[in-house]
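The data are quoted verbatim for reference:
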Amino acid sequence: MRRVVDDDLDEFFGRSTAAPATSASSLRDAPSGRDTRSARPKRARSPRLTGDPTVRTPRTSRAAPSRSRSDARRSPLRSVPAGAVSPRPALLDRAGRDETRPPRPSRRPSRGSSAAVSRAPSTRSGRASRSPRPAAQPDGATSRRRTIRRLALLVFVMVLLVAAIAVRLVSVQVAERETWVAYGRNQRDGWRELPAGRGAIYDRNGEPLAMSVIQPDVIADPSNVIDAAVAASILAPVLGVDAETLEEKLTGTGEYALLAAGVDGEVVAEFDALREAEDEKAEAAGEPSALTGITMRDRFVRFNPSGDLATSLVGSTVADGGVDENGRQGVSGMEVQFDELLTGQPGRIYYEHDPSGRTIAGGTETVEPARPGTDVYLTIDQTLQYEAERLIGDQVAATGAASGMVVMMRPSTGEILSMASVAVDGEGDVVNTRDARPVTAVFEPGSVNKVITVAGALEEGLMAPDTVLEVPDHLTIYDKTFTDHDPHPVRAWSVTDILVTSSNIGTIKIAQTLGRTKVDGYLTEFGLGETTGLGFPNEEDGITLPLERWSGTSIGAIPIGQGIAVTALQMLAAYNVIANDGVYVAPRLVAGTDSGDGRSEAEASANRRVVSTETARAVREMLEKVVSEGTGKRAAVADYPAAGKTGTARIPQGVDATDGYLGSDGRYHYQSTFLGFISGADLSILVTLQDPRTSTYGGEVAAPVFSELAGIALLRSQTPPPALTESPSVEVPELSATAREIGEDAGPTATAAAG
């Protein structure tokens, strides 16, 4: 039994590779069943014994390749010659058995055998019982190799881990530094936008036409509200909002809730007083205010101090200071044309807050102030704009017209002093239109276009003011017959007579002499058929036929203002050429800007010479006779030399296939115009009415408005009358007796519309 125990210990700790030799006699003399290893000398080296193959060599303390106890039972003991030393440890298989030993005998040793006595456990039911087989233990070299491999793997993993951490640290500290710094700031720093005021729009004298005013919003931060129900009950009477609605907003998620938008000054005063009272009450009680987390935020809205004065020019913005889908505030007029210039740059206020969004008391606060938009100064005179709107509105109402327009300019600079557009609304009231029709709407100019034909003929040297032509009262060109307004026999009229009497036939004969190419060229030189360069939104360029599309009758229709369309501003700019000694100056609406460092004047308008000074003065003298002796007598201004031209043009209806001018009501509709200037006063005015019912003549319905408005403008500018004794620079003939008999023209009277 002791041998069995010792074998078990040997199998657990491992056997020595060399054991001290024991004499064979001592093995034979050992009593049966008694352990003889206790008599072995310690750590003594002796050769292994040879002889009885059943005798085991004594073990020493030095480890030998270990064998499990089961292996010992299975394999017979090897005989080792005396003095022989095993050259190397025995080879073991994967189960720890010695591969060099013979296989275990199939029969168990006899019961009398000492080996069987020492190894065989007690049998039960005639069958030997075995103890559990322990796991094989590797030898020292294998253990060391495994340990080294495990340590190497551990070191490799640690190196990878350290390298990954190092790479991440470098990435965070260097490559992604700004990102993580910003992330950290976002966790602590908050900001709120400070709205910027929109630039104001002023008239030429600094009178405001549109400006931004503060109309605050009442807002809340629900995360900072102490008691939503209490706060709602306090605010409801002041804001005029239902308490339940306020409570719902105050208990919402997020850090922003709009309680009331654009409150007026009275509500602002009441809110400030209420908040002050609640703060005092809370301070006395040592508790937070019931209005904690509720405040007002400034918001700028557009305000027009003069109501709808010049509304079509100034334009409009998105309601309540908002923006459209393109991020613009301007909607129409100058507001949208100069939206980028007028729009301010919002500021920011930076503060510190805790993770829940509450402002940290005593934290750092930085303010980036907002920058308001640039102010724009228009060339419009507020007083003249008011008078223009008043006079044209009154005349539309008095004549039963559908609409009317007025444009007033300075010919030498191109500055627009007023631009009015009124119309009758659905309720029969005359109101200012929302669109600037003098720029965005076109009409056939009629007789006012004759000036361009006459000026071209004079400039080319084909005609002179006193050139006489035989003028009948009708003329057929191809299949169209053109007539003068009043029937008359063939007259010998000068060019001056033709212009003053507004003879259609005389003008057509001048145009035929000038030629279609020259007529078309002068129309373009005077600015027709192209935009004025004003840059106003939706500005029309008018309608003129390309020369290659002229028909045979175009030489009769176009010179007398039929078959083309112009804007009111285009036509007045063309007349400014005559008033400005033959130089065309582009119209402009902007006088200057102010970005906060003082007003800076706008650049002068582009200009070009169209006709010579002599031609312009000759035409000017003839136009003065139109007012003094011809069809425009009602445009006269006391003590000032007024010059101009009347025009009455049919308005195309597009209803009747045979007569495009005939309306669905069976009558013709007319555009009645007077267009002129005050010689020597740098002032030009166009007045036109659409479809007046009391009279269709421009000299009767439009000329009186010109006269009254010119007088107001001259008085406001304090322009003295020119010397009445001053001799004219160009002599023009007096009107003939027959020309003086001719009354007001009715514009083109062709039997059918010209092609």
